[in-house]
Design brief:
Chains A, B: One of its GO terms (biological process) is L-leucine biosynthetic process. Chains A, B: It is found in: Cytoplasm. Chains A, B: It comes from Micromonospora olivasterospora. 2 copies of one chain form a homodimer. Chain A folds into 2 domains: 210 residues, Isopropylmalate Dehydrogenase, CATH 3.40.718.10; 146 residues, 3-Layer(aba) Sandwich (Isopropylmalate Dehydrogenase). The two termini of chain A are 18 Å apart. Chain A has 371 residues and is α/β, with parallel strands linked by helices. The first copy, chain A, contains 13 helices and 14 strands. In chain A, the strands form 3 sheets. A 10-stranded mixed sheet of chain A has the order 2-1-3-12-11-4-5-10-8-9, sandwiched between helices. A two-stranded antiparallel sheet of chain A has the order 6-7. In chain A, helix 12 crosses helix 13. At the A-B interface, strand 6, strand 7, helix 8, helix 9 and helix 10 of A face strand 6, strand 7, helix 8, helix 9 and helix 10 of B. The complex binds 3-isopropylmalic acid (2 copies). One 3-isopropylmalic acid sits at the interface of chains B and A.
């Protein structure tokens, strides 16, 4: 009944393969629930550099801006020998999208399926009850040069009398911290109402400010319990006692490291979707970018081996957050769980007695389970 | 037969409890192998702030400088409400020691004992064959303000028209990277000859310089294989496939996070020792600081519950690296393994059928096993 538009940026490596399956799921949902869905296919990353000389073009940015949501695949890397002097890098597509659209809250849910406990490196007793979501700050920190804030170029390699040196700056403003912390508390209200804020306040000024702002925001959420933990301790607890967490909020680079680590609880990074959300409203939700947290995995590119689940669950998050289609999102998640319970596995979550299938068959089975 | 001196800084929380056991081991070794060992007890951290108003005094720094090695316990934190405006913080003791003595290479070995597989959150098949060592850069990076390098104060919270903002700077010079990378390759030569360098070269300038220098140093070690991996991928592999690693070299904060995470493979952070080494030679080795990687654990302070193994294994590293006493170091490590195999456990590595003992009894049994 709705009329929506989505820009699809499959990107590089296995990106196009998994995105194809996620798109198939979206189109099936549109068909089943009678929504009109307009899809714009565009390039990003290495694919875009090859075709247009830039990691993402102005025209593509414009198309994204006019859509309700962006479905993203994965971004490739330049080969090592080309990296050094390259001025155009594929990652710039992601950074540009995140920064220009102010996608400050990156949601990454970790909920190991019981049917996959045997594929996880962790013992089942350590997984039991784990259901957490990361809210990773995505628009600031070490990822972005703050040319306007620091005299001189803030992120660079420069030559001094004693040789080369390199500098990156980690800058956070009050507003940048407050908006993501608020997003985390908002999410916690609808969950188990525990926020864990992760920082390195015994070392970093930015973490001291971070803590202060968490304290201030928390006052507005009397029903939510919160705690501060250090990033090193968090990395430990994510292995020893992951079920203690509900909502984890942290800065950009800490979030990058901890979410990849935590993905292993589910058995594979190929299981974890993400939503990057900002302030802009779409028709019935928040304009956002949705992508699996895995990379372009060039080693298995074109081999029909990649796990499409992360991309498909990202499509579910797109339905929920940007299109406001909650029932449809739940239906997709249920279809994934059903196929997993039926014993179908891509190689990354392979186990004894499982039926190992390729990217396409896994996708097809999930689409079929929707009908 | 040797004549050595060690400065002991027990620090805060459980620091004194575990250090007492480690010291007992050192004294027993000295007795058994007929070395003369002079011990200087000094304060650091909260204990020093309370007594002398500083995290570590000049006199204590001097005593350290005149010793062959420093045996360190753990550093406490100020309570939250005192942190905000405090100018003296206990962590400064550690930063000062690391910076002034240029302890740039922090060695943290991770080798899960087979007798402790059942105490680990990981399934035994994932632990099998794991024997890795981190070489964490310890004297630079985000931990240190580079007042001389960046115009303006590089790590601070400041007020702007739009509210507060905080900035930290991540700076590495060529020399700082080269010396720690060289240390890692040197260590790899005597092991399985694989160096994994961990960075975030798709985002950070400092990581791009880091990679370049690894390439350059590697030329001098044709027998050593090396690889670059991203820090997020490393956090993943440390859960999924830890036995793939031999020597992991990385910058300060990445090392902080990854080593705490990896400690969980052994079942407890209370099992992991460390050596912080610089350029200064001691009588028969390298002047260094030796400490468990765990913190001061104020929640169990004074309860005879802390695991003294990390501190005792740190004493073994002290014997090996600063005093050049290799046989003695091996004897201590064997004594620890024997007591573990005999089924004695502190609460952190407690398991069914184990004999749970306190800090003191664990220490006594290890000392006894030495004789
Ligand atoms: C591709 C890379 C720049 C990116 C990041 O570090 O943010 C990725 O690891 C992620 O987590 O989305
Ligand atoms: C106490 C703290 C400042 C310290 C660090 O971050 O280096 C600790 O976590 C460590 O790993 O030795």
């Amino acid at each position: 009944m709705g009329d929506y538009s989505v820009t699809v940026l499959p990107g590089d490596g296995v990106g196009p393969e998994v995105t194809e399956q996620a798109l198939e799921v979206l189109l099936t949902v549109a068909d089943l629930y009678r929504h009109k869905l307009t899809i714009h296919h565009r390039l990003a990353g290495l694919a875009s550099i090859a075709a247009e000389g830039v990691a993402i073009s102005e025209a593509t940015m414009q198309t994204c801006a006019e859509s309700d949501a962006i479905l993203f695949g994965a971004i490739g890397s330049l080969p090592a020998h080309e990296r050094r002097n390259a001025t155009v890098k594929p990652e710039q597509a992601l950074f540009r999208l995140r920064k220009d659209f102010q996608f400050f809250a990156n949601l990454r849910p970790i909920r190991p399926s019981r049917s996959l406990y045997s594929a996880s490196p962790l013992k089942p007793s350590y997984l039991e009850g784990t259901d957490l979501i990361f809210v990773r700050e995505l628009s600031a920190g070490l990822y972005y040069g703050h040319l306007e804030s620091v005299p001189g170029k803030p992120s660079e390699i420069r030559r001094t009398e004693r040789g080369e040196e390199a500098i990156d700056t980690l800058l956070y403003t009050e507003q940048e911290i407050e908006r993501v912390v608020r997003a985390a508390f908002d999410i916690a209200v609808a969950r188990r109402r525990l926020v864990t804020s992760v920082d390195k306040a015994n070392v970093l000024s930015s973490s001291i400010l971070w803590r202060r702002i968490v304290e201030r925001v928390a006052v507005d959420y009397p029903a939510v319990t919160y705690e501060h933990i250090l990033v090193d301790a968090c990395a430990m607890y994510l292995v020893r006692d992951p079920s203690r967490f509900d909502v984890i909020v942290t800065e950009n680079l800490f979030g990058d490291i901890l979410t990849d680590q935590a993905s292993m609880l589910t058995g594979s990074i190929g299981m974890i979707p993400s939503a990057s959300l900002g302030v802009r409203r779409s028709q019935a939700g928040t304009f956002g970018l949705f992508e699996p947290i895995h990379g372009s995995a060039p080693d298995i590119e074109g081999q029909d081996k990649a796990n499409p689940v992360a991309a498909i669950l990202s499509a579910a998050m797109l339905l929920r957050h940007s299109l406001g289609l909650h029932e449809e999102a739940l239906a997709v998640e249920a279809a994934v769980e059903e196929v997993i319970q039926d014993g179908y596995r891509t190689v990354d979550i392979q186990e004894e007695g499982a039926k190992v299938v390729g990217t396409r068959e896994m996708g097809k089975r999930i689409t079929a389970a929707l009908r």
